[in-house]
Structures are given as structure tokens and as C-alpha cells.
Write a structure and sequence with these properties.
The chain is mostly beta strands. It is about 0% helix and about 40% strand. The protein contains no helices and eleven strands. Strands 1, 2, 7, 8, 9, 10 and 11 form a seven-stranded antiparallel β-sheet that branches. It has a two-stranded antiparallel ribbon with strand order 3-6. The protein has a two-stranded antiparallel sheet with strand order 4-5. It is globular and about 65 Å long.
């Protein structure tokens, strides 16, 4: 099986229940700030230590507009579960889950000759997860 995103799913439950036809689910990026730890005695370079907590970037999602469905509620906290596609030899797919805030949802632009697409932004809130379970 090709190493692509085909077969990936996103399910939102609880505060806003929504299952769309996803075109793309943005990357899960984590980062930690580097805090300046430079002393007056430092001679060559600034010195840094890691911050106590990591942060997660917002996840941008593009979906085919489902105008017959109630759109997600912006500001709602929900459980977001992203299931990655299984690769050759895997029995269980990798899963990323946690509570997230729907921070944006855009209705589609209306024009001739193009698919109706919507965009949504999720921000994991750090209250429950996000937890990544590797594929097996």
C-alpha cells in the first residue's frame, strides 16, 4: 500500500459531533520553547533550556462542503480522533486523540466550475491529550 493519506479519518464527538468528507487533515506539530539561560559568565554563545510544557499547533482541515449537514459549532470543545491509514503489515492504524476546540469553520466560496470546499481549524486544548497511539 502506498504511503499516502488515503484512508485517514477525523471524527469529532461530544461538544460538536461532525463527520465530514475530508480532503486533507493538517499535520500534527508539537514544539517547545527554548528559554534563555545565558549567564553573565557565558563567553561564546547564548545558553538555553527547554520550557516546561510543549504546545501543539492548530490543525487545519479541508473538507468537501456538506450543505445538508449542520456545520460544526465554532468554540465547541469536542473529542477529536484522527485515525491514520494502515500501512502494509499493520494490523491496527495509528490514532491521535484528545479534546480540541473548533476555533474556525468557513462555509464554501461559491463560484462556477469549482467544488464547494470548507475549512476548519482545530486546536488541541491540552486538557485531555493529545495522545498518539502508534500503529501495530
Amino acid at each position: 500500500m502506498a504511503n499516502t493519506g488515503v484512508g485517514a479519518t477525523l471524527v469529532l464527538t461530544s461538544g460538536s459531533t461532525y463527520t465530514g468528507r475530508w480532503k486533507s487533515i493538517g499535520a500534527f506539530n508539537q514544539s517547545v520553547e527554548a528559554l534563555d539561560d545565558t549567564a553573565l559568565s557565558s563567553t561564546d554563545y547564548k545558553e538555553f533550556v527547554p520550557d516546561d510544557l510543549a504546545s501543539v499547533d492548530p490543525i487545519n482541515v479541508e473538507l468537501y462542503a456538506g450543505l445538508s449537514a449542520t456545520p460544526p459549532v465554532v468554540g465547541a470543545v469536542c473529542t477529536a480522533t484522527i485515525t491514520f491509514p494502515r500501512q502494509t503489515g499493520q494490523t491496527n492504524a495509528a490514532v491521535l486523540t484528545g479534546t480540541a476546540i473548533i476555533t474556525a469553520f468557513n462555509q464554501p466560496e461559491l463560484s462556477i466550475g469549482t467544488r464547494l470546499m470548507s475549512n476548519m481549524t482545530l486546536q488541541f486544548d491540552g486538557k485531555t491529550g493529545p495522545t498518539f497511539t502508534p500503529a501495530t
